[in-house]
Amino acid sequence: MPNEIQPAPADAHDRYAIVVAQWNQSVTGVLLEGAVATLRGAGVADDHIDVAWVPGSWELPLVAQRFAEGGEHAAVICLGVVVRGETSHDQHINRGVSLAMSQISLQFDIPVLFGVLTCESMEQAVDRAGGAHGHKGQECAEAALHMVGLLKNLPAS
């Protein structure tokens, strides 16, 4: 039977950063509430959750990078909403933001969670912020907790 590595339990001493876009705040605020509630439910105290608001999803990576390079946080959760419009603007934002977050995660060896809803309409965004299609804020916080615990149990590089 193979050796399956399981995540360590959540540690109350770990700090989490959440970067959230103000654009489409009616949805991103709900995503934030879900992420914070999930972290609290895992025993993370409010004073170990740092939240930074940025103007829009395009600005998420810069602040995520600052949190990651600071070395104080176990994970960075990024929350935003990009709704498709009449131009290809959304595609450029989504591609740039997703690639940047991936690079930050690998560069600083820290989980950077992509909680940016990339939707065709606001209705789809609402459905993914606690509606018919789950809650991306909660899901990102759950993934952050899982990854932090898993990295603790993986062999050092």
UniProtKB/TrEMBL annotation:
<dbReference type="Pfam" id="PF00885">
    <property type="entry name" value="DMRL_synthase"/>
</dbReference>
<keyword id="KW-0686">Riboflavin biosynthesis</keyword>
<dbReference type="GO" id="GO:0000906">
    <property type="term" value="F:6,7-dimethyl-8-ribityllumazine synthase activity"/>
</dbReference>
<comment type="function">
    <text>Catalyzes the formation of 6,7-dimethyl-8-ribityllumazine by condensation of 5-amino-6-(D-ribitylamino)uracil with 3,4-dihydroxy-2-butanone 4-phosphate. This is the penultimate step in the biosynthesis of riboflavin.</text>
</comment>
<feature type="active site" description="Proton donor">
    <location>
        <position position="89"/>
    </location>
</feature>
<dbReference type="GO" id="GO:0009349">
    <property type="term" value="C:riboflavin synthase complex"/>
</dbReference>
<feature type="binding site">
    <location>
        <position position="128"/>
    </location>
    <ligand>
        <name>(2S)-2-hydroxy-3-oxobutyl phosphate</name>
    </ligand>
</feature>
<comment type="similarity">
    <text>Belongs to the DMRL synthase family.</text>
</comment>
<keyword id="KW-0808">Transferase</keyword>
<feature type="binding site">
    <location>
        <begin position="81"/>
        <end position="83"/>
    </location>
    <ligand>
        <name>5-amino-6-(D-ribitylamino)uracil</name>
    </ligand>
</feature>
<dbReference type="InterPro" id="IPR036467">
    <property type="entry name" value="LS/RS_sf"/>
</dbReference>
<feature type="binding site">
    <location>
        <position position="114"/>
    </location>
    <ligand>
        <name>5-amino-6-(D-ribitylamino)uracil</name>
    </ligand>
</feature>
<comment type="pathway">
    <text>Cofactor biosynthesis; riboflavin biosynthesis; riboflavin from 2-hydroxy-3-oxobutyl phosphate and 5-amino-6-(D-ribitylamino)uracil: step 1/2.</text>
</comment>
<dbReference type="InterPro" id="IPR002180">
    <property type="entry name" value="LS/RS"/>
</dbReference>
<dbReference type="InterPro" id="IPR034964">
    <property type="entry name" value="LS"/>
</dbReference>
<protein>
    <recommendedName>
        <fullName>6,7-dimethyl-8-ribityllumazine synthase</fullName>
        <ecNumber>2.5.1.78</ecNumber>
    </recommendedName>
</protein>
<feature type="binding site">
    <location>
        <begin position="57"/>
        <end position="59"/>
    </location>
    <ligand>
        <name>5-amino-6-(D-ribitylamino)uracil</name>
    </ligand>
</feature>
<dbReference type="GO" id="GO:0005829">
    <property type="term" value="C:cytosol"/>
</dbReference>
<feature type="binding site">
    <location>
        <begin position="86"/>
        <end position="87"/>
    </location>
    <ligand>
        <name>(2S)-2-hydroxy-3-oxobutyl phosphate</name>
    </ligand>
</feature>
<dbReference type="GO" id="GO:0009231">
    <property type="term" value="P:riboflavin biosynthetic process"/>
</dbReference>
<feature type="binding site">
    <location>
        <position position="23"/>
    </location>
    <ligand>
        <name>5-amino-6-(D-ribitylamino)uracil</name>
    </ligand>
</feature>
